[in-house]
Amino acid sequence: MESKRQQKVGRLLQKDLSEIFQRDARHLFGNAFVTVTSVRVSPDLSIARVYLSFLATKNKEMLLDTIKERGKTIRQQLADRVRHQLRIVPELHFFMDDTAEYAAKMDALFSGLEIPPAPAEEDEE
What CATH number should be reported for the domain holding residue 84? Predict the structure, then answer.
């Protein structure tokens, strides 16, 4: 369970990282559309787990590796944005968020199921 402080810092980082990925650093990743789906912050606010979703790219793993390689640059851009709100800029760990793909896969599985109707219960009197 995250504290209110962790949640506030997570939302702040999500908003600023989204702007970095969509405006400032989009050219660094081949104009792929990177969405920050969520940010989870450790209790001491020193580590942030950033979950990303990708559009307009063929190789998502390669794009994630590129983002990880440029993590220091991204953290520096983040520090320029949040330097007045946070004392220490957390270390960023990037992960791929495949929730949408998982949900689509589950929907496809459920739509293919044949569920017979329940047998009618007869009243015994």
Answer: 3.30.300.20
Measured CA to CA in angstroms, residue 110 lies from 4, 22, 107 at distances of 37, 35, 5
- Within the chain, where are the H helices? 4-19, 60-69, 71-82, 99-111
Per-residue pLDDT tens over the stretch 45-86: 999 999 998 887 788 889 899 999 999 999 999 999 999 999
| Domain-embedded: residue 124 | no
Residues 91/75, Cβ–Cβ less than 8 Å? yes
Q: Residue 20: how many CB atoms within 10 A of its CB? A: 21
Greater model confidence, 49 or 106: 49
Model pTM? 0.78
Token duo for residue 1: 């369970």
- Single out the residue of 118, 25, 19 nearest to residue 72, CA to CA: 25
Find residue 90's DSSP bridge partners: none
C-beta neighbour count of 98 within 10 angstroms:
15
In a domain, 105, yes or no: no
